[in-house]
Amino acid sequence: MTRVEKRVAIYVRVSTDGQSVDAQLRELREVSYRRGWEIVQEYTDEGISGAKGRDQRPALDAMLKAAMRGEFDTVAAWSVDRLGRSLQHLVVGLSDLQSANIGLYLHKQGLDTSTPSGRAMFGMLGVFAEFEREMIAERVRAGINNARVKGTKTGNPIGRPRTGTDVESKVRKLRGQKWGINRIARELGIGSGTVRRIAYE
Question: Which of 15, 49, 99, 192 is catalytic?
Answer without folding.
Answer: 15
